[in-house]
């Protein structure tokens, strides 16, 4: 079993050098590919990247936009803002909320079942897996399919989206969108902090005195986000030629969201994210939500990526610098098999 690693200074991890595009600039160019689609975005709360993704998708006339998150009141706030936005046309676009806790396999299964019950022919054009949590200070768990405890960041950031996505694949395959359906899954530059160590030792995900002692909050986050990259790789391969394309997104560092809520203020100051008075450090390499979500729009809609399924989009461009452990097809298959075990269901296409 591996020991704890030192939490790296996130501000020193590779960040997009310069993001000149914004969600609006990319969407303006891709408008024709955005209109009339059915889209699900997970993890939607005011101030988060999911809300910015919802804003830009809603602005470009989807047919149906489903905001899937765990806090109904927060989704309702975002929907109210979207409907109040200039140009929103309720006769063109329907916006719905879907309550789903991605840390709970039961909740995920119930949420997808509710979509299929409402419309047995439900067809999905774009799935944006955005929800995530970061650096829980203590080792916490969520139940796996057998009710056994599983480390929570892995459970929420990798296993939740793995199950949600796979249960939605039949709907994605029913998409009639020209150019096919897309799955865009949000990883993090933080993936550079760790491979999926659980592939060597699945026991590190389990609740034992040793794992609690060895727990490193950043390593656990990094492992889960490498999981996102490997899931995309496997998904792209399994769905090649079947009308569904998969991409990962590195959103860059956006200080204005709520992601750092689990990171104690003194740690955030020590890492240089915040100034001594608690405000965001202006010299940290933060970008705006609009710059960040440019990559979401590209991954979800840009037809020029059709031959790049499996790729990661960073700073609105294909990222050619992904580390080997996050683009290895053998590791991707291994993680797929481990994930199937954890959700108690096999998915092959
Ligand atoms: N901000 C950054 O610098 C940055 C950098 C790298 C990667 N990312 C990634 O970008 C994505 C969005 O993060 P953000 O910065 O916008 O953070 P955020 O403001 O904390 O938003 C995260 C969203 O995920 C939702 N969520 C968390 N756990 C969930 C669960 N179990 N089930 C359903 N929804 C859940 C949250 O809902 P509640 O509000 O109800 O908790 C919230 O809507 C995450 O995947 C994150 O890892 C962000």
From TrEMBL:
<dbReference type="InterPro" id="IPR002347">
    <property type="entry name" value="SDR_fam"/>
</dbReference>
<comment type="similarity">
    <text>Belongs to the short-chain dehydrogenases/reductases (SDR) family.</text>
</comment>
<protein>
    <recommendedName>
        <fullName>Short-chain dehydrogenase</fullName>
    </recommendedName>
</protein>
<keyword id="KW-0560">Oxidoreductase</keyword>
<dbReference type="Pfam" id="PF00106">
    <property type="entry name" value="adh_short"/>
</dbReference>
<dbReference type="InterPro" id="IPR036291">
    <property type="entry name" value="NAD(P)-bd_dom_sf"/>
</dbReference>
């Amino acid at each position: 079993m591996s020991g704890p690693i030192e939490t790296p200074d996130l501000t020193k991890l590779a960040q997009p050098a310069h993001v000149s595009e914004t969600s609006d600039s990319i969407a303006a160019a891709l408008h024709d590919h955005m209109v009339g689609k059915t889209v699900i975005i997970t993890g939607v709360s005011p101030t988060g990247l999911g809300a910015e993704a919802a804003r830009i998708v809603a602005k470009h006339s989807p047919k149906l936009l489903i905001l899937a998150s765990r806090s109904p009141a927060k989704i309702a706030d975002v929907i109210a803002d979207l409907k109040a936005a200039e140009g929103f046309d309720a006769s063109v676009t329907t916006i719905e909320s879907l309550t789903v806790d991605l840390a709970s396999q039961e909740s995920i299964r119930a949420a997808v079942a509710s979509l299929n019950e409402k419309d047995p022919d439900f067809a999905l054009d774009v799935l944006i897996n955005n929800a995530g949590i970061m650096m829980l200070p203590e080792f916490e768990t969520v139940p796996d399919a057998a009710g056994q405890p599983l480390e929570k960041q892995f459970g929420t950031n990798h296993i939740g989206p793995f199950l949600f996505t796979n249960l939605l694949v039949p709907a994605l395959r029913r998409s009639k969108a020209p150019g096919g359906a897309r799955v865009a899954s949000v990883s993090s530059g933080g993936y550079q902090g760790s491979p999926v160590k659980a592939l060597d030792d699945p026991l590190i995900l389990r609740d034992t005195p040793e794992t609690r002692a060895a727990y490193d909050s950043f390593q656990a986050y990094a492992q889960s986000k490498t999981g996102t990259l490997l899931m995309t790789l496997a998904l792209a391969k399994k769905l090649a030629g079947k009308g569904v394309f998969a991409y990962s997104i590195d959103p860059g560092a956006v200080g204005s969201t709520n992601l750092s809520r689990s990171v104690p203020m003194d740690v955030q100051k020590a890492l240089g994210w915040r100034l001594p008075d608690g405000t965001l450090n202006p010299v940290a390499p933060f970008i705006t939500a609009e710059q960040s979500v440019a990559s979401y729009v590209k991954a979800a809609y840009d037809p020029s990526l059709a031959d790049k399924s499996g790729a990661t989009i960073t700073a609105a461009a294909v990222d050619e610098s992904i580390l080997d452990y996050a683009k290895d097809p053998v590791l991707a298959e291994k993680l797929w098999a481990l994930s199937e075990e954890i959700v108690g269901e096999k998915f092959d296409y």
